[in-house]
Design goal:
Blueprint lengths: L11 E5 L7 H24 L5 H22 L2 E7 L3 E8 L4 E6 L4 E5 L9 E6 L2 E5 L5 H16 L5
Helix pairs in contact: 1-2
């Protein structure tokens, strides 16, 4: 997602991505298997005169296919945080950088703020003077806390060596 670094600068990079539980091939096999089961049952029930099951089986498989498509599409989301000696770059997007933020390393804060409500997820924020971005929406609260600690250490370290 980031451009290739061709300098002698010390760099630390963190890539945040959702946990993709299914690959594209696995999702296709799952969908084909579910279609076979659903349409097999529909075919069996058609023998007994219950032909009206076919539109519902088709709608069910269309909904499953749409859900799998959205899930696989969202698996391409990435957030790349690059910490240089003098600045922090954050790039986020679906399969390619769509949004980009750059912060000077000096006075940039990494904060883990609690959610608005008791059950709301925490928010990982990289800010400077009230402006910034939120990271790690695809992470659990525990993972978000670990990422926050790592980024705080990188941002406040005197040197990245």
């Amino acid at each position: 997602m980031s451009s290739r670094i061709e300098s002698n600068e010390h760099v630390r990079r963190l890539v945040i991505a959702p946990n993709a539980s299914l690959s594209k091939a696995q999702a296709q096999w799952f969908f084909v298997g579910m279609c076979a089961v659903s349409f097999g049952i529909a075919g069996f029930l058609t023998v007994f005169g219950l032909w009206l099951i076919w539109p519902f089986a088709g709608l069910e498989m269309a909904a499953l296919g749409a859900g799998l498509y959205v899930s696989l599409r969202d698996n391409g989301y990435r957030e790349v945080v690059t910490v240089y000696d003098d600045r922090i770059e954050v790039e986020a997007g679906l399969n390619e950088p769509q949004r980009r933020w750059e912060f000077p390393r000096l006075l940039t804060q990494v904060r883990l703020s609690p959610g608005v409500y008791n059950n709301s997820p925490s928010r990982l924020l990289v800010t400077r003077h009230g402006h910034g971005c939120e990271l790690g929406r695809c992470l659990t609260d525990e993972e978000r806390g670990e990422v926050a600690e790592r980024l705080k250490a990188w941002v406040t370290a005197p040197q990245l060596t």
